[in-house]
Amino acid sequence: MENSTSDSFRELDFVFAQATGYVPWPGILQRKLLSTGVVQFMFTNGRKSVPYEKIWPYDDRSKEQFITSQNMKHEAFRKAICIAEKLRSGDVDVISEDADWELVSPLEVSPGMCPALEQSRAEWELNYVREVRLERDSLAVEVKFIQELNALRSSLTVRKQDYPTALWALQELHGLALSELLLVRNFGAVEAINSLCSFASTQPQDRREVEQVKNLARQLMDRFASHFKQPFSTPDFWSEYCLRSRIYRSHTVDIKPN
Could you give the strand order of the β-sheet that contains 47-51, starting from the edge strand earlier in sequence? Predict the structure, then answer.
């Protein structure tokens, strides 16, 4: 899509705008500055100064590009689109200070007002499951993955802290060829690694080993995140992972590794 300039917009235009760290989001251009525009985002009510190259008209072309199944899995994004569609239908006067357009509840919006939401949430989720299942060849390492996780769990318990075994298991996990499919299938395993990022011991003499465990766990979580397509529709990887794993596990039967 071509980069926009200040001349591409008028104040109070409906737009998609991408603030740093977020997906393109529906909003209204409140003020035009020299190189940026001040955008008020739907549903969140946040205002950001966004470069014009990160602002796009709210038109059919932009909606086709930004209203994706991935983005629509995020409840806040769906509500923002719903509000935008109601506003553009003409039921609310955007200029009126009493309109409180940003506070409109999506529950008030009739289905006919939201063409972007016509495809059911179940269909979006099934599309994700179909896509991630294309990685089924990666499940060849699943048995090894689970074995190392079990060794890790049994080595760090309330009564026993076998650090050599734990560190070895973490190193072995680092060496495996991972995939998004493998990870969303094994929520308990990823949850265990995530909990080790804040691992602690009551024994002062274990401080060095504890830091090694935490550092390797954090590095492993970063590796996990690298296997997931971005941008995320949630604020952080752990939230995104929980969302995708829930979707996968609620819409699929077991796939046996080759």
Answer: 47-51, 36-41, 25-32, 14-17, 55-57
* CB contact at 8 A, 197 and 161: no
Q: How many domains does the structure of the chain reveal?
A: 2
Q: Do you find a cis peptide bond into 24, omega within 30 degrees of 0?
A: no
CA 145, 139, 166: angle at the middle one, nearest 5?
Answer: 5
3-state secondary structure of 149: helix
Given a contact cutoff of 8 angstroms between Cβ atoms, the answer to whether 3 and 58 are in contact is no
Look at phi and psi of residue 69 and say left if phi exceeds 0, alpha if psi is from -120 to 50, else beta. Answer: alpha
> Residues 62, 9: contact at Cβ < 8 Å?
no
- Find the domain containing 53 and state its range: 1-119
pLDDT digits (tens, 9 = 90+) for 164-205: 999 999 999 999 999 999 999 999 999 999 999 988 877 778
Same domain flag for 25 and 89: yes
SS3 of residue 198 by DSSP: coil
Structure tokens at 33: 């500055």
CA distance 32 to 6: 7
Closest CA to 137 of 8, 15, 258: 258
User: Do the beta carbons of residue 102 and residue 79 sit within 8 Å?
Assistant: no
**Do residues 181 and 138 touch, judged by C-beta distance below 8 A?**
yes
Residue pLDDT, tens place only, 207-250: 899 999 999 999 999 999 999 987 776 667 888 898 889 888 88
Q: Per the domain annotation, does 258 fall within a domain?
A: no
